[in-house]
Amino acid sequence: MAEKESKTFDPATKSVDLATVEMIKKAQAAGVETIWDRADKMKPCPIGAEGACCRICSQGPCRVPPVKKAKEGEEQKKQAVGLCGATAETIVARNFARMVCGGAAAHNDHSRGVAKLFKEVAHGKAPGYKIKDIRKLKQLARDYDVPLTEGEGDDKKSRSTEVIAQELADKILVEFGQQDGELVFAAKRPPKKRIELWRNLGVMPRGCDIEIVELMHRTHMGVDQEYHNILKQCTRTAISDGWGGSMISTDLQDVLFGCPVPVSGEINLGVLKEDHVNIIIHGHEPVLPEMIYVASQEPEIVQYAQNKGAKGVQLAGMCCSANELLMRHGIPTAGNYLQQELAIITGAVDAMVVDVQCEMQSLANVAKCYHTKLITTDPRARIEGETMHIPMDEHHAIEIARQIVREAIDNFPNRRAPVLIPDIKYPTVVGFSYETIQYLLGGSIRGSYYTLNDNIIGGRVRGVAGVVGCNNCRTPHDSAHLAMTKELLKNDVIVLVTGCSAMAAGKEGLLTPEAAVKYCGPGLAEVCETVGIPPVLHMGSCVDNSRILMAATACVKAGGLGSDISDLPAAGAAPEWMSEKAISIGHYFVSSGVYTVFGGSFPTTGSALFTDYLFRGLEEELGGMWDLELDPVLAAKKMIAHIDKKRAALGIDKARERVLFDMEMRREMQAGGSEE
Ligand code: XCC
Ligand code: SF4
User: Fold this and answer.
1) Short-list 263, 338, 343, 269, CA closest to 507
2) What burial class does residue 598 get, using C-beta atoms within 10 Å of its C-beta: 0-12 exposed, 13-18 middle, 19+ buried?
3) For the chain, what percent of residues have pLDDT higher than 70?
4) Which of 56, 71, 168, 519 would suit a FRET pair with 12, their CA atoms being 20 to 30 Å apart?
5) Of the residues 250, 325, 336, 581, which should be mutated to test ligand 1's pocket, given the most ligand atoms within 8 Å of the CB?
C-alpha cells in the first residue's frame, strides 16, 4: 500500500509575508493547529457563501442556489423558493441586511462605550483619563450646538472645558437611543447634495440603535419581502454606522487620546523582543490599552519586570487596537488579523490581552500549547477554555491595567523553549488623520484640501483610492492588498488605508516616504516627494474609515471636483474582506457615493437580480455601487477606469494626458543626450 500522502500544505502558498510563512512553518513543526489547517479541512459551504441559504425560521434551513442555464432544447429550471415562498432575492437580501446589522452593531456599540467613558471623564469620574484635544472638543461642540461661551455683552465668558464636555456627552449619548430626527454628523457633515439625496430617499438615519433594530425586525420571518425595500433600510443602517457610530468613536477617541499626527513606528512580528516581557494588545477599543500603555512605562512596573529577569516591557498591537496605539503613541504593531495565532507561536508572548472583535476562539488552544496567558477584558467577550478574565472598569482603569501588566510579567519566567521571533519588521510613518492631511497640504492657517484637488485637476494625481479591510484565510494573506495597492500607485492613484490593509502595506514598506519613488507613477511620486509623505496614507483603525469620509467631503468642499462625493475621481476596496463590519463599511461607502469593489467572494451572488441591483442599479440612486473582482490587479484597473470616468465627467481628463505627455517629452529630451 502506498504511503499516506502528507496532508501538510506549503506555508509559502498561504501568505506573501515572510514572517508569517516562517511562523506557519514553526507551527507545523510543533504540531500546533492554525486557521490554515482548519481551512484546508473545511471548505466553505457553497450555498451559504452565495447568501442562498435561509435559516431564519425552523421550517428551514431553505436552500435556493442559482440554477444552471438550460442547454438548447432543454426546459429552463426555475430557482427554488423557500418553504414560505421567499424568493432568492428576498433570502439573499435578508442575509446581506443581517450582515450590515452585525457590522453596524459592532461599530455603534464600540462607539457607545467610548461615549460613556467620555461622559465619565467630563464629570471627573474616570481617573487617569483626560480631555486631550480641546480643539477637536470645540469642533464637536459646534456640531452639536453646545455653546462655547455664556453670558452676553461685557459679561460674556468662555465656558469651562468640563461644562462643555458634560453637555456634549449628554447630547451624543442621546443619539444612540434617539427615535426621531436625524443623526447630527449625517445631517451636517457630508456635502449638501448628499444630505438632500438621503433625505429625499428616506434613508437619513434617525438614531444609532433604531436602524439596526428595525432592520433585524424587517428581516424576521415573514416581514419585509421586497428586496429594494430591504436594501433601503440597509442603507439607512450603514449610514448610521459610517456617519454615526464610527464617526462618533473616531472623534471622541481623538478628543480623549489625542488626534493622530505623523509618527514613526515599526511593524511585523519582529517587533517582539526575546529579553522583554511581551504583551500583545489585540482587539479594537483603545480605552483600556491607553492605560496599559501608561502602566507599562511606570518605573515600579519596569523594576518589577527587571526583578523577574526581563529587560523591560514591550507592548505590541494586533488588529485595530494596533492601529490605535501605533497612530497615537508609535507603539509597534505585531501584525494583522491572520497573525494572531502566530504571535503566540513565537513562544515569546507573555500575555495576549483582548477586548472585542476579530479575536479567534482558537487563541485559547494555541495559548495552551505555550505559556501565554490569554486575558479577556470585556464583559461582552469571554473566551472558553483556560483564559483569564480581568474586566475593564473605567473607574479603576489604571489599577486594572497595572494588574494585567503584572500578570504578564509574572508569566515571563514560565517561558518554555524554543522561542523563535522572526527577524522581520519594517519602519512606517503613520498618523494621517483627516486634520493632519489638511495641515500637511496647506499649513495650519491656509490648511485646505485644495492643494490635493489642484494636483488631481492638474493630473499629477489621477485619483484617490481607499484600500481597507481584513485578511481572509481563503486568500493568500496580504497578497491582494499589496497587488492592488501597487497597481494603483503605479497609475498615480494615492491610496488611503485603514485596518488590516494598512498593516499589510506597512509590512511591505509602503508606509514610508521612500516608497514614492519605488512604486509610484511619475506624477504621484513628484507630489509625495514635494510634500514629504508616503504614497500610502495610514488613516487608522476600521472605525477610522470615517476619516476617509471626512477627507472625501473636504475634497468636495475645497472646490473644483464637483459637488458631491460621487463626483470625485475616487474608489474604495476591501480585497481580503471577511467580517460583517466590512460589509457595513462597504455599504456606507456605496451609500456615500463611492464605487466599492470587494475581493474573495460576495455574499449575494445567490441572486443574480439582487446582485445586479447592488452592482449596477444603485449607481443611479446613490451614485455609488458595489462590485466583486477576484483578481486584485484587475480590481485596481476597474477602480482606475471608474476614476477616469469621473475625471472625464469633470472635464479634467485632458489635463492628465498633458501631464503624461510632459513626462514623456522630458524623458525623450533626456534620452536625446542633454546631459546635466
Ligand atoms: Fe478585523 Fe479591525 Fe477586518 Fe482586521 S480589518 S480583520 S474587521 S481587525 Ni477592521
Ligand atoms: Fe425557509 Fe421561509 Fe423559514 Fe427562511 S423564513 S427558513 S425561506 S420557511
Assistant:
1) 269
2) buried
3) 96
4) 519
5) 581
Task: Say yes or no to pLDDT of 6 above 80.
Answer: no
Q: Find all residues with CB under 8 Å of 169, minimum gap 6, and list them.
A: 115, 118, 119, 122
Pocket test for ligand 2, best of 58, 59, 98 (most atoms within 8 A of CB): 59
Ligand 1 surroundings by CB, under 6 angstroms: 284, 319-320, 337, 358, 469-471, 499-500, 542, 579, 581-582
Q: Whose CA is nearest to atom 8 of ligand 1?
A: 319
Closest residue to atom 2 of ligand 1, CA basis = 320
Whole-angstrom distance, CA of residue 600 vs CA of residue 632: 9
Q: Model confidence over 364-420: pLDDT tens digits?
A: 999 999 999 999 999 999 999 999 999 999 999 999 999 999 999 999 999 987 999
- Residue among 63, 79, 91 to mutate when testing ligand 2 (max atoms within 8 A of CB): 91
Residue 639 confidence (pLDDT) above 50 = yes
Q: Rounded to 5 degrees, what angle do the CA atoms 120, 121, 123 make?
A: 65
Quick one: pLDDT at residue 280? Answer: 98
In SS3 terms, 573-617 reads as EECCCCCHHHHHHHHHHHHCCCEEEECCCCCCCCCHHHHHHHHHH
**Residue 480 CB neighbour total at 10 angstroms:** 31
667 Cα to the center of ligand 1, angstroms: 43
pLDDT at site 213 = 98
Ligand nearest to the CA of 90: 2
Section 420-446 average pLDDT: 87
pLDDT at 675 over 70: no
CA of 93 to the centre of ligand 1 (A): 23
Task: Give the residue-averaged pLDDT of 349-358.
Answer: 98
Ligand nearest to the CA of 94: 2
Contact 459, 522 (CB under 8 A): no
Cα–Cα distance list, 135 to 119, 170, 255, 258 (Å): 18, 19, 8, 10
Tell me the CA–centroid distance for residue 77 and ligand 2, in Å: 21
Closest listed ligand to the CA of 543 = 1
DSSP 8-state class, residue 242:
I
Q: What is the rounded CA–CA span in Å between residue 227 and residue 308?
A: 62
**DSSP result, 173-238:** HHHHH--SS--HHHHHSS-HHHHHHHHHHT-----HHHHHHHHHHHTSTTS---HHHHHHHHHHHH
Strand intervals (E) in 320-371: 333-335, 349-354
Q: Quote the pTM value.
A: 0.96
Mean pLDDT of 546-570: 96
Continuous segment of H or E residues that includes residue 302: helix 299-307
Rounded to an integer, what distance in angstroms lies between the CA atom of residue 516 and that of residue 528? Answer: 6
Write down the pLDDT at residue 53: 98
H helical segments located in 56-133:
88-122
The answer to whether residue 8 scores a pLDDT higher than 90 is no
Ligand nearest to the CA of 95: 2
Omega before residue 61 within 30° of 0, cis: yes
83 in ligand 2 pocket by Cβ < 6 Å?
yes
Q: Is any ligand 2 atom within 6 A of the Cβ of residue 503?
A: no
